[in-house]
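Practice problem 4.
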């Protein structure tokens, strides 16, 4: 009976999963339940006759517990597992745990209370993540549950970068500071770049550019600064988030008659590319640009400028000692124009793009600059689930 690891990523209306073999980290199944509480849709990939087969079906998903049942039954139905005893552990990606944990941890009562405590800072994520953890603990009581926090990697950020210059009594009372996010991805990329560069310790500027986007300065393989702050709203312009703006815009809109919830919704769901182009998908903006749409062209310019500004800022904070600039996540791994323009617009650096490599297909990473470039730059495919699976193996012992 070959041992396996189940990785879960729970959203407010979705539940993604991936199954790894413990022995070699091979992915043998993946899928998701989506539109939970609405109507329901289920997708699963699994091996059949040596090839991946995909099945999709409309199915009623009134809540997360039903979604978990659908996943477990389907894993047996399609012979991904024969018995739940094959799982050595279940890894859960959890967004927010403050500074309580500097590493992934086995889920216990302290962990559960921590996730509950920081719900205010991650109201869209922590509640559903905790709910799903408790469901799995009930249904598979003998299987170890491991929580991997996005905030853990950033607990090394020094005070000079994590303290906001507001009244510190207020900051301390409400635990207001820079927490940072995308930590599981940054942890994976750091370890991957140590392998690629054959170095035990690396200085990196990592651009995790997806629908949600952030940049991290990594010093001696530890997070030194990151663009997201108390919440994921700060920093870069994103798909639907505005990124850093004058905070007085919020209070001004309140005096104009908007409610706090309306302002929050505006900044998080109706801004960024969505606010400027009508779509939060960068691919739509590029399609509009091809049609000479001025709003889309401007939006892309602003989007890239924000990335460039943070790269320069973090290069300065790393004293110019940079082993590599890395692009990852949906846009960073695939959108070559954003990647190349973000580098070429840095006038202080002599970044020379290797066009052949930039446009070449790749599996896990590729170098996209020439030897004459001031700093090497890479596009690297992140694998947060694999990172969590490794933590599950380590902690399930």
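Answer key:
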């Amino acid at each position: 009976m070959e041992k396996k690891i189940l990785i879960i990523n729970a959203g407010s209306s979705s539940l993604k999963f991936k199954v790894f073999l413990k022995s070699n980290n091979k992915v043998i199944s993946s899928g998701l339940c989506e539109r939970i509480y609405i109507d329901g849709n289920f997708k699963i990939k699994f091996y059949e006759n040596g090839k991946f087969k995909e099945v999709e079906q409309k199915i009623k998903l009134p809540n997360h517990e039903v979604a978990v049942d659908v996943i477990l039954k389907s894993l047996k139905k399609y012979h991904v597992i024969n018995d739940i005893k094959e799982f050595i552990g279940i890894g859960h990606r959890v967004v927010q745990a403050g500074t309580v944990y500097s590493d992934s941890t086995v889920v216990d009562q302290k962990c559960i209370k921590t996730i509950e405590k920081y719900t205010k800072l991650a109201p869209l994520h922590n509640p559903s993540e905790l709910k799903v953890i408790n469901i799995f603990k009930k249904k598979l009581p003998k299987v170890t549950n491991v929580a991997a926090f996005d905030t853990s990697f950033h607990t090394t950020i020094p005070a000079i970068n994590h303290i906001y210059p507001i009244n510190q009594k207020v900051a301390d009372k409400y635990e207001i500071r820079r927490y940072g996010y995308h930590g599981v991805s940054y942890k994976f990329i750091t370890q991957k770049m140590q392998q690629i560069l054959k170095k035990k310790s690396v200085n990196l500027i990592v651009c995790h550019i997806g629908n949600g986007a952030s940049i991290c300065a990594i010093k001696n393989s530890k997070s030194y600064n990151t663009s997201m702050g108390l919440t994921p709203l700060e920093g870069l312009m994103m798909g639907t988030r505005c990124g850093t703006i004058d905070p007085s815009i919020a209070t001004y809109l309140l005096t104009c008659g908007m409610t706090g919830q309306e302002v929050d919704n505006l900044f998080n769901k109706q801004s960024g590319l969505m606010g400027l182009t009508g779509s939060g998908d960068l691919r739509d903006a590029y399609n509009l640009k091809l049609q000479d749409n001025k709003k889309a062209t401007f939006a892309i310019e602003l989007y890239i400028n924000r990335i460039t500004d943070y790269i320069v800022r973090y290069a300065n904070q790393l004293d110019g000692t940079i082993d590599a600039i890395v692009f990852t996540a949906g846009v960073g791994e695939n959108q070559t124009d954003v990647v190349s323009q973000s580098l070429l617009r840095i006038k202080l650096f002599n970044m020379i793009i290797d066009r052949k490599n930039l446009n070449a297909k790749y599996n896990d990473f590729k170098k996209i600059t020439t030897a004459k470039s001031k700093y090497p730059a890479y596009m690297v495919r992140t694998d947060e689930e694999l990172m969590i699976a490794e933590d599950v193996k380590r902690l399930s012992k």
